[in-house]
Amino acid sequence: MDYVEVARAETERGDVVLRRRTSDTAPDVLELRVNGVFVMDTLETTSEIELAAQALDLVEQPRSVLIGGLGLGFTLQRVLADPRVERAVVVEIEEPLVQWMRDGTVPHGPAVLADTRATVVNADIAMAIAEARSTYDLVLLDVDNGPGYLVHEANEAVYEEEFLRRCHDLLSPGGVLVVWSANPAPDLLEALRAVFGAAEEQAHDVLLQDRPEKYHLYLARR
């Protein structure tokens, strides 16, 4: 297996790298790494899609959706595939990643972001939620690898009760919050239950760089 660097940017949080993984037996795969840590790729997108699909199934009219973390756009793409969605706001802290999606460095990016229902905000998710002036039917958070495998230590607060309460208050009545995590996160589940009264953990089987793994979704309804 060979790797070719496609794009690299240095931000105040470190290196953001997009690279192409090639082999003689499979199509090329784009892979995103932050500070040397694998974040996601274009081969195994199941859990990113399910992050949206599970939430969309729980709300009758998910007109307005907030997504924390653009990634490679698969969660946004699934949200926009639902005709009930009228507005999808994505908050992404890494501006180079937004640019790579816009300019075609990520080949499917321009088509996803061309949807007029989609707005991308280059900001920290905590700040964006603190400053939000409208409510959402769904809030989907995929801003790091989860509380047990953080790329940026500052993101620890995203999985704690104080921040989750802000997400709760941002939801319309009956709205749903879903949080993605690479590993089981019992403390996150407990915090969600403290805020929402009830929460659910889902484990999803994935194939990560040819290794079977489980990713986790945490769901709670206002």
Quick recap of the structure?
The protein is an alpha/beta fold and 222 residues long.
Task: Give a structural overview.
It is a single chain. The chain has helices at 46-58, 74-80, 95-103, 109-113, 125-130, 161-170, 186-196; strands at residues 2-11, 14-22, 29-34, 37-41, 64-68, 87-92, 118-122, 136-141, 171-181, 200-208, 211-221. It is an alpha/beta fold. It has one domain: 3-Layer(aba) Sandwich (Rossmann fold), CATH 3.40.50. It contains seven helices and eleven strands. Helix 6 crosses helix 7 (186-196).
Largest sheet: 7 strands, mixed
Radius of gyration: 17 Å
Strand residues, percent: 35-45%
> How would you classify the helix and strand content by structural class?
alpha/beta
Order of helices and strands: EEEEHEHEHHEHEHEHEE
- Low-pLDDT ranges: none
**What would you call the quaternary organization?**
single chain
Record the SSE blueprint.
Elements: E1 2-11, E2 14-22, E3 29-34, E4 37-41, H1 46-58, E5 64-68, H2 74-80, E6 87-92, H3 95-103, H4 109-113, E7 118-122, H5 125-130, E8 136-141, H6 161-170, E9 171-181, H7 186-196, E10 200-208, E11 211-221
Parallel strand pairs: 5-6, 5-8, 6-7, 8-9
Antiparallel strand pairs: 1-2, 2-3, 3-4, 9-11, 10-11
Helix pairs in contact: 1-2, 6-7
Key terms for this structure?
single chain, 222 residues, Rossmann fold, seven-stranded mixed sheet, four-stranded antiparallel sheet
